[in-house]
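Lab notebook, bench 4. Still working through the backlog of constructs that have no structural model yet. Next entry is a single chain of 138 residues. Request: give me the structure tokens for it.
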Amino acid sequence: MSDINKVIVTGRVTRDSELRQTPNGTPVTDVSVVSNRIWTKNGERQEEATFVDVTIWGKQAETLSPMLTKGRHIMVEGRMKLNSWETDEGVKRSKLTIVSENINLTPTNPNPQGNRDNASSLQPVAASAASADDDAPF
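Model written out:
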């Protein structure tokens, strides 16, 4: 049996993304997403924030980078990757990140009071790594 490395996370982007190029010209951008878990324990509201770093490659990075701004709610599908390095002082470090395979820009409500006048702006937008060579769907 083959192992499975698949993760889905929803949350808000914590800072604006910045598109860059690798030395061989491949577009890449990194974002951090905060996913909040809320539950009740002994009648008291509990909350836990989990911060996850996400790397987006290729056409998907180029297309989505301008839209991945602080506060934007997204859903990320991808695989976990362990990045390891050594500091200048010789200390070994590692960080678990998500390599994006698909990002969904989830609906946002410009008027939180529930006024649905702008209902057409509440449609989700998706960009799939599988269609990275196709034109953007929006």
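Notes after review: Residues 111-138 have pLDDT under 50 and may be disordered. The longest helix spans residues 58-64. Flag for follow-up if needed.
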